[in-house]
C-alpha cells in the first residue's frame, strides 16, 4: 500500500518548511523562497502504512486534490465547479488510503558516522516539479535519493504552474496559489508566459539555496518555519550537516527546464539532472546555453517526444558540445528509457495504478520498474560526477544489467543501444 520502499539502505525522514514573506509585493515581481519539503536519511524506523506520520502526507490537504482534478474537470461554470468538488473528494479519499509515503515525518536526521567522517556533511539535491504538480509529486524518487545519503529539497513553485501551492504572507496568513491557467488547455498558453514563469522559477531556486545556506549556518531558527502539524521540519537538525559545496539541481518536465536555466545562472550548482525536460520554453529566456560547465544528465521517456522538442533540445546539446574543448569536453549524458511515458517519472502511476493505465499515464514498462531504472541512473551519475575523485562512497549504486535492456544512450553521433 502506498509508494514502494526506497532503494537505499537508509530509512527516510521528511519535513516541510515555509518562510514568511517580508512584503506584500506580487510574487511574480519579487520572488521569494517558496515552500519546500526536505527528504533525508534517518536511522528511525519507517511508520506503519496507516500511521499519521506518513499516510496523509502525499497530498498535504484537500486543495491539492482539487487542483489536480481541475486538469480533468475545468471549473468554467458553477455546475462544473460542483462536479469538480465531488470528483476531488473521491480522489482525496483514494490518495489518503493509497498515497502513503515510505518515510517518517519529523524523524531525526541520520547522525554522523564515526567510520566515515565525510558522511557528516550530506550532499544536497534541489528538485523542481513539473506543470500541474507540487512538492510531493515526486516522493518516490526523492526517497530513493535520500535513502542513499542525499538531502533532497523538493520545491513548490509559486509561479502558478503547480496544481496548488501555499505560502505564508507578510502578515503570517496562509495563502493559496492555484494553477494560473486552470481554465485553459496547455497548448493555448503562449510561450512568452511560460518564459515568465520559468524566469520566476529559476529565481525561486536561487532563493532556496540562500535559505539552505542560512539553515546550514544556524541563521534561521525553528520559529522561522511557519508550517504547522507533524510534518513541520526541525530546522536545527540541518545545522552544519549540509554539504552545499556539492549541490545538485534536478527537475522533471517544466522543472527540468527550470533546472537547466538555474544551472546556467548559479555557479553554486555542481551537477544538473533533467528528466523529460520541456525544452521549448528555454528558447524564450536568456541563459547560458552550456548551463555552466557542470556535468549534466538528461533522462527521457520514450513517448515524450515531438519535432519542436527535439529541435530545441539539439540547440542546447550543440551549444554544450561547442562550448567544450578537446582537452575538457563538457560531460552530457542523454538516456531514453524504453516503454515509458512522461508520467512514469512521477508518483502518479505508482499510486493510481489502474487509473494511470486507463488514461495512458504509464507505459508498457511496470511503473515500479520504470521508477527504479530512473532512480538508479540518477544515483550512478551523481556518485561518478558530483563528489571529488577518490571520495569514499559507502553504498555505491550502479545500473544493473536488467536496466540496460531498457536504456538507449545518445552519443554525439546519434542514438545507439547502451
Automatic annotation (TrEMBL):
Record has Protease as a keyword: no
Gene Ontology biological process: lipid catabolic process
Gene3D superfamilies hit by this protein: alpha/beta hydrolase (3.40.50.1820)
Keyword Hydrolase among record annotations: yes
Superkingdom of the organism of origin: Eukaryota
Keywords per UniProt: Hydrolase, Lipid degradation, Lipid metabolism
Transmembrane segments: none
EC numbers: 3.1.1.47
GO molecular function: 1-alkyl-2-acetylglycerophosphocholine esterase activity
The protein's name in its UniProt record: 1-alkyl-2-acetylglycerophosphocholine esterase
Amino acid at each position: 500500500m502506498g509508494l514502494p520502499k526506497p532503494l537505499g539502505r537508509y530509512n527516510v525522514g521528511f519535513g516541510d518548511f515555509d518562510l514568511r514573506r517580508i512584503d506584500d509585493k506580487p510574487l511574480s515581481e519579487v520572488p521569494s523562497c517558496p515552500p519546500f519539503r526536505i527528504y533525508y536519511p534517518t536511522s528511525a524506523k519507517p511508520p506503519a502504512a496507516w500511521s499519521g506520520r506518513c499516510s496523509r502526507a502525499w497530498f498535504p490537504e484537500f486543495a491539492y486534490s482539487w487542483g489536480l482534478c481541475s486538469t480533468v474537470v475545468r471549473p468554467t461554470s458553477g455546475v462544473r465547479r460542483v462536479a469538480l468538488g465531488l470528483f476531488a473528494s473521491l480522489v482525496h479519499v483514494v490518495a489518503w488510503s493509497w498515497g502513503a509515503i515510505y518515510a517518517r515525518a519529523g524523524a531525526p536526521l541520520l547522525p554522523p558516522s564515526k567510520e566515515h567522517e565525510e558522511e557528516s556533511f550530506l550532499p544536497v539535491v534541489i528538485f523542481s516539479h513539473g506543470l500541474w504538480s507540487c512538492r510531493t509529486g515526486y516522493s518516490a524518487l526523492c526517497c530513493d535519493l535520500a535513502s542513499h545519503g542525499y538531502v533532497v529539497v523538493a520545491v513548490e513553485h509559486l509561479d502558478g504552474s503547480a496544481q496548488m501551492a501555499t505560502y505564508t504572507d507578510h502578515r503570517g496568513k496562509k495563502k493559496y496559489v492555484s494553477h494560473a491557467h486552470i481554465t485553459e488547455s496547455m497548448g493555448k498558453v503562449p510561450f512568452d508566459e511560460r518564459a515568465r514563469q520559468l524566469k520566476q522559477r529559476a529565481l525561486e531556486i536561487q532563493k532556496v539555496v540562500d535559505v539552505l545556506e542560512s539553515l546550514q549556518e544556524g541563521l534561521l531558527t525553528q520559529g522561522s518555519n511557519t508550517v504547522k502539524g507533524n510534518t513541520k521540519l526541525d530546522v536545527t537538525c540541518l545545522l552544519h550537516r549540509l554539504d552545499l559545496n556539492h549541490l545538485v539541481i534536478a527537475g522533471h518536465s517544466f522543472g527540468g527546464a527550470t533546472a537547466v536555466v538555474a544551472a546556467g545562472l548559479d555557479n553554486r550548482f555542481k551537477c544538473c539532472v533533467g528528466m523529460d525536460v520541456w525544452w521549448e520554453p528555454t528558447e524564450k529566456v536568456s541563459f547560458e546555453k552550456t548551463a555552466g560547465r557542470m556535468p549534466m544528465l538528461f533522462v527521457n521517456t520514450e513517448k515524450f517526444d515531438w519535432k519542436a522538442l527535439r529541435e530545441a533540445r539539439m540547440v542546447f546539446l550543440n551549444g554544450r558540445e561547442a562550448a567544450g574543448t578537446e582537452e575538457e569536453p563538457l560531460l552530457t549524458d542523454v538516456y531514453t528509457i524504453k516503454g515509458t511515458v512522461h508520467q512514469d517519472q512521477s508518483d502518479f502511476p505508482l499510486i493510481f495504478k489502474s487509473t494511470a493505465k486507463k488514461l495512458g499515464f504509464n507505459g508498457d514498462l511496470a511503473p515500479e520498474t520504470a521508477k527504479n531504472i530512473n532512480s538508479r541512473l540518477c544515483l550512478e551519475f551523481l556518485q561518478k560526477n558530483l563528489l571529488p575523485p577518490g571520495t569514499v562512497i559507502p553504498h555505491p549504486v550502479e545500473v544493473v544489467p536488467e536496466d540496460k535492456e531498457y536504456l538507449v544512450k545518445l552519443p554525439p553521433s546519434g542514438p545507439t543501444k547502451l
